[in-house]
Amino acid sequence: xxxxxxxxxxxxxxxxxINETYKRVVEVMNGIDYDYELVFINDGSRDKTLQxxxxxxxxxxxxxxINFSRNFGHQCAVSAGxxxxxxxxxxxxxxxxxxxxxxIVDMLRIMEKENANVVxxxxxxxxxxxFFKKITAKMFYRFLNxxxxxxxxxxxxxxxxxDRKIIxxxxxxxxxxxxxxxxxxxxxxxxxxxxxxxxxRFAGETKYPLKKMINFALIGIFYFSKKPLQLPLILGxxxxxxGILYALFLIVYAFFTPGTDIMLMNLILMSVVLxxxxxxxxxxxxxxxxxxxxxxxxNRPEYIIDEKINF
Length: 311
Ligand code: UDP
Ligand code: MG
Hints:
Elements: E1 4-11, H1 18-30, E2 35-42, H2 49-59, E3 63-68, H3 74-84, E4 89-92, H4 103-114, E5 118-126, H5 131-147, E6 156-163, H6 164-171, H7 180-187, E7 191-198, H8 210-224, H9 231-256, H10 262-298, E8 305-309
Parallel strand pairs: 1-2, 1-4, 2-3, 5-7
Antiparallel strand pairs: 3-8, 4-6, 5-6
Helix pairs in contact: 9-10
The chain binds uridine-5'-diphosphate and magnesium ion.
Residues 10-12, 14, 43, 71, 73-74, 77, 94-96, 98, 206-208 line the site of uridine-5'-diphosphate.
């Protein structure tokens, strides 16, 4: 029997690219010896995305659609795809054709040849993305690797191929805010890279504005590293040390120069500003962990599905 491949495609306001993406993915599927299904997730789009997806369902019975009740975000959309796909393998790919569908063929080849459980895409080149995005992404992945207890491959997104074992394990993960690429690395098993050139967005504009990008990065850091929590300890020790030196300095100073000095006042003011800043920063960090715990403790579903079409 032929193996089945599920292609998971999250879509948020992608009316300009959906049809082209569908065409290109189906072309690739027709060229390989696998049964397939296309799982589109409509993540609360406000444009014609849902209607276009419904049209695709009536055109091709292999197309399935999950419609969210509102916009829950890219990671939730991918989670829903993984949770509802039926393939032996699942490919996660963006709707905007930045990840070329043809690379899925290479991924399948590596998967079979290496007997791997995950083949993740590594970006050689990134076309058509701002210098700012490229440099911050590069720095972020390296920073996260330093911070985290889990080691991540750098310069990878969610574009990857996973097998049934990974899919089943993923479904058992309970956390609410998922940093999917991190979680899949964390699972272990055999994971192999597949190098590719990331292309320009086919049409439309990015659905990841700076604010979403920062939130996403913070989830990566706070869910995979406890190191920031050690910061108060380090700062505390440092400030005790500085305090002692400062006290010694004052004793010596008072001994040799009686009376007050404007320099001294400035020094005190400076240290008040500096240390209250550090204190607030550390409290902010703690607040971030607390907020994340709050999210998890509430135990709400990650997303709400309005409708499943053709399942
Ligand atoms: N996306 C989504 N929900 C969102 C934001 C994005 O499902 O809230 C989808 C989007 O339609 C695309 C993928 O996630 O298929 C990646 O988004 P985008 O290409 O805008 O991000 P970028 O490549 O610019 O980082
Ligand atoms: Mg994109």
